[in-house]
Amino acid sequence: MAKWVVEAEDLSKVYKMGEVEVHALRGLSLKVKPGEVLAVMGPSGSGKSTLMNILGCLDRPTSGTYELDGESVANLDDDQLADIRSRKVGFIFQTFNLLGRTSALENVELPLRYAGATNGRSERARQALEAVGLGDRLHHRPNELSGGQQQRVAIARALVNNPAMIMADEPTGNLDSKAGEDIMKLLLGMNKERGVTLIIVTHDAEVAAQTNRIITIRDGRIDEKEAEKPKTTKKNKSAETEAE
Question: Which of 7, 40, 63, 139 is least crowded, fewest Cβ atoms below 10 Å from its Cβ?
Fold first, then answer.
């Protein structure tokens, strides 16, 4: 196992818009341990989406180095990035991003198809859905599921390939408070049970407070003044207890 799941050094990202250069990241460095739960916060335009795209192998930095689970990925081409993504990263989105005309089982199978798996896809997808409490919803389409259930399908899809890291972009943003709490308990439980590393982008201070560490991005850099380890609260303790 690699010492770091994420080891990024001096990342910069410059977008050219005509003659104007937009510096989205400015020499940002970040390390994330295996099994860590990290919250990424910051205002709109701070660079956190650019950072998440690079960490998730959806984009490349203009300069700097990045190793994902021990593999250098900063200079890979699109096909190589896609291969790393399919093996190393699971994604959970605020809007679920499920295919509306396919069942929960078929949605969860998709990463296995993209990764070229040919045997046991349905069984692995079924096991992933059972792990998130949806063993009785295998053949339901998204419009037949509640928002919380759709997000559970998305979590099962993110986990099915046993990735080194899960990246969750506002995973509770489209849910009511009860469903949001349930999703956080599920994610934290998966972290404890499987040791999967979680990076969660959120504007919700209560969500961030349940993580091991919070970083705040401002103007393309980590704001060291706001970097902190969340204080243990009754809610945090309760979430950890129920996750176990």
Answer: 139
